[in-house]
Amino acid sequence: METQRTCPSCKKALPPNVPLGLCPECLIKSGFDTGTDPANPGTSGFAPPSLEEIRKLFPQLEILEFLGKGGMGAVYKARQPALDRFVALKVLPAPVANTPGFAERFTREARSLARLNHPRIVSVHDFGVTGGLHYLIMEFIDGQNLRQAERAGRLSPEQALQIVPQICEALQYAHDQGIVHRDIKPENLLLDKAGGVKITDFGIAKIVGIDSGDSLTGARDVVGTPHYMAPEQIETPTEVDHRADIYSLGVVFYEMLTGELPLGKFEPPSSRVQVDVRLDDVVLRSLEKERSRRYQKASQFKTHVETIATSRPEMSSLSLHRQRITWIPALVFYVLQAVLLVPAELAMFDGSIDRSFQWIGLSLLSLIPAYIAWGILHYACWKALPERFRATTPARAVGFMFIPFVNFYWAFVSFKKLADGFNAWHRDVPALPVRDGSGWAVAKAILFVAFWTLAWIPGLASIVSLADLIAFVFYYQAIVWNANLMWPRQKPS
Amino acid sequence: MSSTDNRSPAFATTHWSVVVMAGEGDSTRARDALAKLCKAYWYPLYSYARRRGHSPEDAQDLTQEFLTRLLEKNWIANANRTRGRFRSFLLSAMKHFLADEWDKVRAQKRGGAVAIVSLELDTAETRFLREPADDDTPETDFELRWACTLLEVVLSRLRGEYENDGKTELFTALHPCLVGDRAAQPYAELARTLGATENTIKSAVHRLRQRYRQLLRDEIANTVASPDDVDAELRYLFSILSR
Fold first, then answer.
1. Helix (H) or strand (E) holding A91
2. Helix, strand, or coil here: A89?
3. How far is CA A399 from the centre of its chain?
4. Which of the listed CATH numbers 3.90.226.10, 3.40.120.10, 1.10.287.3610, 1.10.510.10 matches domain A144-317?
5. DSSP SS3 for A108
6. Chain B contact for A263, CB < 8 A?
7. Which candidate in A126, A142, A183, A468 is catalytic?
8. pLDDT confidence of residue A427
9. What angle do CA B132, B135, B141 make, to 5 degrees?
10. For A311-338, what is each residue's pLDDT tens digit?
11. Euclidean distance between CA atoms A450 and A16, whole angstroms
């Protein structure tokens, strides 16, 4: 039996069966230590050379700072004194460079990369080997990558719609040259200060051999996550073509819109966030598992996105669908109000002004729950909106409910006038001929419902509310006039 | 070349992300990845079953049956909301299994399960008996076992790497330095016993700790769906162990 031991570090009693007799709590704590890039947990074993080592290897450059470490090497900011320009120096991980065939692949790929000349692609100025270290000297972009931008705060769909076509354009250019990126992910999309996008690390994936299917390089380790890879990049890495980039861009796009990765059986963007429903088609099409069903060219992707970006948005009625419980009573009470107007009108045609007003009163009372339900609906819709779409405050959202209340007030004023008119007229004309006005009343009720149905079409609600306000006043005042027309004043006999 | 292979056996990409990515599609890769995960992390399940009051025999059958079903039937697809972490997926699937399935299964057959994942179930009970049964719930117990199992996986991989490089003694001597403050390690003493300079030991310890950290993060990455979750999971594991 073991004696109870304590952890030499935290002094807590150690439970039996601890791994290697070490305190598990302290072991995990050691995992917190700095030294690894938290953004790249999958990068095993590659320790980037220190600034000193790099300075020794690149005397022609002023090495300014270490910018970061990714799956495919370390990047340093440097200055070329002769040309007086900043450059990014990328050093590839040594273990990768030791694999057979690397030297030829590196030279071949780097040459074709250097030929890429596009405003949206980070250009390669120079490449080579020094002290056994393979490096690329590239254009320096002052800005952040898309991952950093996403971490700093979610991008709006408008920004996503602005970024994606630029990437498509660059991809199309590279694809035309026969170059596939193979590793499109937020870390490789740089946003410069002017809001432009530049793709970096073009073809590096091929140099490093990520998708050569060669497990010897350990490059798969280096990449860490296959989330952005097209299915064929994982299953048949040797048969990858430009359509893999289109898939990866689809993942990036989905993530920009929803903040999540399209994992497993994922929902289309518009059912997660308030975006144009037509974007669902774009995203789903680029994420087709079968590449022949994807966009076949980046330019098609671009055109589709741009068409959506420049035309009127088609919002999904996400909020309304989800709030069925609230909008159904609102609608029911509106219909009830209209229906109650039928007996009111009939009574009026009967000449029974008191009964008519009882019905009108009931009809208006049924508006009160309708307005309350409507207010709740507005609030619920507001709550259902993702935060970045909440352009308005809850108070304002609920405040819309007061538009019909104004309506209500006006209705009363006009009824008051109506009542006064009828009373005055009644005094003059004691005996009214009976007329059948049922058809007229039903038609009006139907019109009323049709009119309010229009209000449920997003975008028309405010117009309908305003029109209703005006129509309500004129409608009831018109009744007074109508009454005069229908029952012309007669001299008392 | 084989040394590269031995270093990270079958960790081409992170396992759980492969499983999650596959979703409902029954890909062999996903099943392989899941099988590997299960092989490493079955003990917390056994312990959970024991803590829920099942006998050692039942707990053995049950763990075996659970894993068999997990691999045979496509349960991953149903695990929508817990997809983020393998740990929570496994626990909720096990709970579901215990609540709905186990009685039926037991009624149908005793034993005779075709082992898909071979488990050292006999040693499991010995191990279970040695561990303290304090007043944790079976769930917190599961999490504790989970964290320890994960650390074991990481440490045995680390030791394996040193053994492959013929540095077993070095590992044995230095591994206590994995815990505690880096500055507080007995470098001078170690230098004396190992007959090396203090600086050599310092850098050896540094390398060991760095490699350990990397392997730990890699292994955690294996159990979460997205690399962004690694830090959160690491913090969570710490909170499990420090309570």
1. strand A85-91
2. strand
3. 27
4. 1.10.510.10
5. helix
6. yes
7. A183
8. 60
9. 65
10. 765 554 444 444 444 556 666 766 777 6
11. 76
CB-CB neighbours of B166 under 10 Å: 8
**How far away is chain A from the Cα of B226, in angstroms, using its nearest Cα?**
7
Closest chain B residue by Cα to residue A215: B12
The closest alpha carbon to B6, from A36, A40, A216, belongs to: A216
> Please, what's the b/e burial string for B115-124 (b: 16 or more CB within 10 A of its CB; e: otherwise)?
ebbebebeeb
Instruction: Quote the CA–CA distance of A44 and B201 in Å, as a whole number.
Output: 22
Give residue A412's identity as a one-letter amino acid code. Answer: F
Tell me whether residues B241 and A28 touch, CB distance under 8 A: yes
Could you say which of 3.30.200.20, 3.30.1120.10, 3.65.10.10, 3.90.180.10 is the CATH number of the domain covering A37-139?
3.30.200.20
DSSP for A174-216, please give it.
HHHTT---S---GGGEEEETTS-EEE-STTHHHHHTTTTT-GG
Q: What is the sign of the dihedral through the CA atoms of A445, A446, A452 and A456?
A: positive
Q: Is the reported ipTM for this assembly greater than 0.90? A: no
pLDDT category, A105, cuts 50, 70, 90? confident
pTM of the model: 0.45
**What does the domain layout of chain A look like in residue ranges?**
1-32, 37-139, 144-317, 328-483
pLDDT in tens, B216-243: 988 888 888 777 778 778 878 887 777 6
Considering only the beta carbons, identify the residue of B20, B29, B159 that sits closest to A264. Answer: B20
Q: Is A183 a catalytic residue?
A: yes
What residue type is A269 in one-letter code? Answer: P
Q: How far is CA A260 from the centre of its chain?
A: 10
> In this predicted structure, what is the pLDDT of residue A249?
93
Rounded to whole angstroms, how far apart are CA atoms A207 and A389? 42
A444 exposure class (CB count in 10 Å sphere: 0-12, 13-18, 19+): middle
Contacts of A29 in chain B (CB under 8 A): 179, 238
Beta pairing, strands A13-14 & A62-70: unpaired
Cβ proximity of A89 and A75 under 8 Å: yes
Residue carrying structure tokens 């990866």: A248
Report the sign of the C-alpha dihedral through residues B45, B51, B57, B58, in that order: negative
**Residue A123's CB: how many other CB atoms inside 10 A?**
17
| CA angle centred on B192, ends B189 and B197, rounded to 5° | 105
**CA angle at B55 for the pair B50 and B60, rounded to the nearest 5°:** 75
Q: CA-CA distance, B136 to B51, in Å (whole number)? A: 9
Helices (H), A224-366: 231-235, 243-258, 269-272, 278-286, 298-310, 318-322, 324-350, 353-365
DSSP 3-state helix, strand, coil percentages of chain B (rounded to 5)? 75, 0, 25
Q: What is the CA radius of gyration of chain A?
A: 35
The 8-class DSSP code of residue A263 comes to: -
Q: Which residue has the tokens 């109870």?
A: A4
For residue B207, give both structure tokens.
């390398």
Q: How far apart are CA B34 and CA B28, in angstroms?
A: 10
Nearest of B7, B222, B153, B32 to residue A218 by alpha carbon: B7
First-to-last C-alpha distance (Å) of chain B: 43
DSSP code at position A83: T
Alpha-carbon distance of A16 to A25, in angstroms, equals 14
CB-based contact (8 Å) between A23 and chain B?
A: yes
Burial category of B11 from C-beta neighbours within 10 Å (exposed 0-12, middle 13-18, buried 19 and up): buried
For residues A437 and B101, give the distance between their C-alpha atoms in angstroms, rounded to a whole number: 69
Q: How distant is the alpha carbon of residue A432 from its chain centre?
A: 65
